[in-house]
Amino acid sequence: MKVFINGKFVDEKKAAVSVFDHGLLYGDGVFEGIRAYNGRVFKLKEHVDRLFCSAKAILLKIPMSHKAICNAVVGTCRRNKIRNGYIRLVVTRGAGTLGLDPNRCKKPQVIIIAATIQLYPKELYEKGLEIVTVPTTRNHANAVNPAIKSLNYLNNILAKIEANNAGCTEAIMLNSQGFVAECTGDNVFILKDNKLYTPPLSSGALHGITRAVVIDLAKEMKIEVAEPNLTRYDLFNADECFITGTAAEVVPVVRIDGRTVGNGGPGKLTAKFINIYKELANATGEEI
Ligand code: PMP
User: Fold this and answer.
1) Residue among 90, 206, 249 whose CB has most ligand 1 atoms within 8 A, to mutate
2) Radius of gyration for the chain, computed over Cα atoms and rounded to the nearest angstrom
3) Does any ligand 1 atom lie closer than 6 A to the CB of residue 211?
4) Which end of the chain has less Cβ packing within 10 Å, N or C?
5) Which atom of ligand 1 is nearest to the CA of 209?
6) Per-residue pLDDT tens for 217-250?
7) Between β-strands 129-133 and 187-192, what pairing exists: parallel, antiparallel or unpaired?
8) Which residues contact 90 (CB under 8 A, 6 or more apart)?
9) Which of 14, 43, 106, 149 is catalytic?
10) How far, in whole angstroms, is CA 269 from its chain's centroid?
């Protein structure tokens, strides 16, 4: 596999960053996880837009244009003959000193890895997922804003550990006000009385690209969508629940904190979203 590093393709065995890179030392950097389906990169512009927004929020100047990054993502897929895969796009602050000061980091590193994806087991989509609420609160927007897709994912990792300890693979994270924010690597939706609800972006949820796709699909299907603050009570009493993310796509949730959601199986609308999302992802995107 050839990895894109600052404009060059480097063999994966030689692909490396400095041990003084503040991405490594402090989680100082931003990233995107992108999927390729059927020879196309899905929602490439949206991912690169978000990468630039994350970088702007941490005052990190990406040393390439938006267009150059898009071309490099497609080029890395082409170089590695990826038609279906998962792409990791990373921009680190670059090598600096052992001190915190980002001004000492003179050269941000742009890294693109285009790999095959380990798909989640099919039965996850057929049987549904059990999740739990975890004690770790989602980062406060005035501390590390969850809208920033930064290399510092400890908040999410702590929640993931707590989920794993409870025998689950995903977790519901609440914000500091006690409202539902999101999962460790996915956004969350519920259906109640034929209306679709997802926490507002201000809750501490990532501006999920899959989330936006599902909202658009729902509106096309004339399903009402609202983004109010949600509590655990709302999740427990939902007719359907599912989570969304680039890697996971749309996954049904059938149990939350020991409460059965709906009839205990994936909901009807959830199943519809799973299918139409797949169709859309396989039919649109930037050609490789
Ligand atoms: N929330 C978090 C914390 C995430 O890391 C992700 C996945 N990148 C998502 C939500 C889902 O976002 P997207 O649909 O853009 O992949």
Assistant:
1) 206
2) 19
3) yes
4) N
5) 15
6) 999 999 999 999 999 999 999 999 999 999 999 9
7) unpaired
8) 23, 29, 30, 31, 109, 110, 111, 112, 113, 151
9) 149
10) 22
